[in-house]
Amino acid sequence: MTDEKQTQEQADEEMINQGFQELLDSYLATKHRKKVEIITKAFNFAKQAHKGVKRRSGEPYIMHPIAVAKIVCTEIGLGSTSICSALLHDVVEDTDYTVEDIENLFGPKIAQIVDGLTKISGGIFGDRASAQAENFKKLLLTMSDDIRVILIKIADRLHNMRTLGSMLPNKQYKIAGETLYIYAPLANRLGLNKIKTELEDLSFKYEHPEEYAQIESKLQETQAEREEVFREFTAPIRAQLDKMGISYQLIARVKSPYSIWNKMQTKHITFEEIYDILAVRIIFCPKNPEEELNECFNIYVSISKIYKPHPDRLRDWVSHPKANGYQALHVTLMSNKGQWIEVQIRSERMNDVAEQGFAAHWKYKEGGGSEDEGELEKWLKTIKEILDDPQPDAIDFLDTIKLNLFASEIFVFTPKGELKTMPQNSTALDFAFSLHTDIGSHCIGAKVNHKLVPLSHKLQSGDQVEILTSKSQRVQPQWEVFATTARARAKIAAILRKERKANQKIGEELLNEFLKKEEIRPEEAVIEKLRKFHNFKNEEELLAAIGSKAITLGEADKNELREKQTSNWKKYLTFSFGNSNKEKPEEKEPQEKEKINPKEILKLTEESLQKKYIMAECCHPIPGDDVLGYVDENDRIIIHKRQCPVAAKLKSSYGNRILATEWDTHKELSFLVYIYLRGIDSMGLLNEVTQVISRQLNVNIRKLAIETNDGIFEGKIQLWVHDVEDVKTICNNLKKIQNIKQVNRVEE
């Protein structure tokens, strides 16, 4: 046995040394200053710290930090500080060493980054506040001091996703959901396009394995056809570029499985109907770096003489790069075969920035300086502002961050002609808050392109916006609906909260005065009566309304209270803000709770669905859907579809409450689904539709609504079905009816 153990240890040792050697080789191949000594020191320290520990896959734990350091070095392009931090990123969390130890050995910079990467140990925030959201908050706080923290975190997440197969299913959903919700948008925002795509695809693979496999096989089946299209389409382009004497390479870019699936879901189309699976990328080496912008446009002009460009689909990110630094010229051309094909024109520098994001900027700077990171700075500043305003709820916080991450940009101009980048769908109100909080809180309207518009007006790229203000204007509650950017929402919410608090205080005093005058004791039942009488959700709302003079206490209130005055003086009301959990104690019933083991897969049987588990109202899952369970605060198990937006939030914020589930049903229970139909109207069509559903398949229709417009009909059918197979069969049979062009399952 000892010999076996010894042999195993030797093999592990070899594997570790080989992994480290590969890391060093890839580091030495970069342009960074060669600080091999400190990297070796960090490796030896981490190796000793994690000695004897194994990962779930069975390999030595140190292989994970080495793999993360490799990603940091080769795929993100960072230098020695980041590589050392990546090697050490789990030491403080998993061993007895502290941040101070790291600082003594490796200096304050590395220690600060490692500290930023160390998770906050559980229990500080109680059950309600999600530790996940708090850890994420900490990560962002440290990131605003040093961007490398988040870049290493993304590398850590990428390696975890690559090795997710050895994890338990509930962990897989939690990590995949969190990746899709937070880390993929983060990678995108930092310009790590390649990593973003891989994170999305891996999440998709674990959450929807069947759909992933289907798309993969369809991509393989159509590969030869795509290669042929690419050859034919690029032949005249190659000839033209050669004639111009440009040094270039032509690459076929194929859409990733996740983005194909996403498009199929949102547009309700089949794989075959997606026209932009293939795009062409021209990457050229400029003759003169000063002229690279002009060369982009020269290439565009020359290829648009070969093929006709789409009039509305020229995207110029060369003159105005995206906020994540992305630069390219996108043009969509009509091929000789009648297909629209997108061509992306980039220089080699632009391509590096597109693949590696901000890290690539450093590559092209002489002193490794950072004057070009203005956009990143702006973004980090926004995040800082959100963090400064503590959000009461973890989910709100994650949502707010997401608003910032996902934003695609539009360009608008100030009255003086300054260019401002705003997220897409921004309103005039968002623009006002982006200029200054004071301008935002006092704005009364705006002029867009010299025309007067309301605050809720959506801005378009190229608009010139002037904000009109008034000293007497105050922040209105409905503004929260108009605002779309995280910054504006956070500011409005903070101002309203402040006002509400002040109004509650005044309301409390006014109410006490009123009750004193009428000689009514301020007991809880009295307040409750007033709350019901004025129809407010809770006591705080009632007080705020009294304080803001929205309601004035008078005769009607007296009559209401006198009429049913109780003689119960037992409870005295103490006004307490921020604590409206008055009815909590009754919640706990002495009922026998089922013990749930999160490590096991939860079987969803007919019996359990009827008695124990709740089907989520937001996504209406049915047997056969990819689903997961969520244990709520009252220990109820709620079943959600995995791609449901509510489930996505839950996975990211309360991952420890996620359960893996599988269906075990026997076609006894019926579930409601909605099927959307569209096609060309003809005689007897409705009859055919109902026959297919009722006669052939023996399924009950609950509701049918169809309307015709200019010979095109569209409609929705509500059906009772047993599982997903029923839905598939119905959709396939309906598609066979002549003149029906589109059939798919939809949410309500």
Offer a quick outline of the entry:
It is built from 30 helices and 20 strands. It is globular.
CATH topology of the largest domain: Hypothetical protein af1432
Cα Rg: 30 Å
Mean pLDDT: 80
Low-confidence stretches: 121-129, 366-372, 565-592
Number of strands: 20
Distance between the termini: 63 Å
Strand content: 15-25%
Overall helicity: 40-55%
Q: By CATH's scheme, which homologous superfamily of the largest domain applies?
A: Hypothetical protein af1432
Q: Which structural class should the secondary elements be placed in?
A: alpha+beta
* Inertia-based shape: globular
Provide the CATH architecture of the largest domain: Orthogonal Bundle
The total number of structural domains is 5
Number of helices: 30
Largest pleated sheet: 6 strands, mixed
Indicate the CATH class of the largest domain: Mainly Alpha
Q: Could you walk me through the main structural features you see in this protein, from its secondary elements to its overall organization?
A:
The chain is an alpha+beta fold. The strands form five sheets. Strands 1, 2, 3, 4, 5 and 6 form a six-stranded mixed beta sheet that branches. The protein has a five-stranded mixed beta sheet with strand order 12-16-14-15-13. Residues 121-129, 366-372 and 565-592 have low confidence and may be disordered.
